[in-house]
Each structure stands twice: as C-alpha cells, then as structure tokens.
Amino acid sequence: MTQDLPELGLFDVIFLRNVMIYFSQDVKRQVLKHLMKRLRPDGYLVIGHSETLNGLETGMRAVVPSIYQMP
C-alpha cells in the first residue's frame, strides 16, 4: 500500500468486514493507520467476526467483539 486514500472526509463508521484476514500483520498496521485518519473522534471501525485487532497498537477501544471505537 504505497498510495494514500483520496480525500473523502471523515467518517462516523467504517465497515471493513472479512478483509484483513488475508493480510499480514504489517499490512494490517498500514491499513489501520490510514483508516484511523479517516474516522471521527468517537467513530467506529467494524470488522468481521473472524478478525481481530489483537497485537496491533491502535489505541482504539473494543466495544464488543469486532467493533472498535476511536478515542
């Protein structure tokens, strides 16, 4: 992932379900770094039930399994 995402503004919720299960930890970190820039404070990231952010330093709070909230 060498390009930045286009300027689309900030989002309250981003759904990224069943995508990151195919990525290495390094690619997951890069994807999350870009996505977190697009989430509003208190915004939510929803991932698939078979995915996790465990082991990734995101600073996001787990609300329930597969739903995380920006600080």
Automatic annotation (TrEMBL):
Highest taxon of source: Bacteria
PROSITE patterns: CHER
Gene Ontology terms for molecular function: S-adenosylmethionine-dependent methyltransferase activity
UniProt-listed InterPro entries: Bact_Chemotaxis_MeTrfase (IPR050903), CheR_C (IPR022642), CheR_MeTrfase (IPR000780), SAM-dependent_MTases_sf (IPR029063)
Gene3D superfamilies: Vaccinia Virus protein VP39
Domain CheR-type methyltransferase: residue ranges: 1-71
Cited PANTHER family: CHEMOTAXIS PROTEIN METHYLTRANSFERASE (PTHR24422:SF26)
UniProt name for this protein: CheR-type methyltransferase domain-containing protein
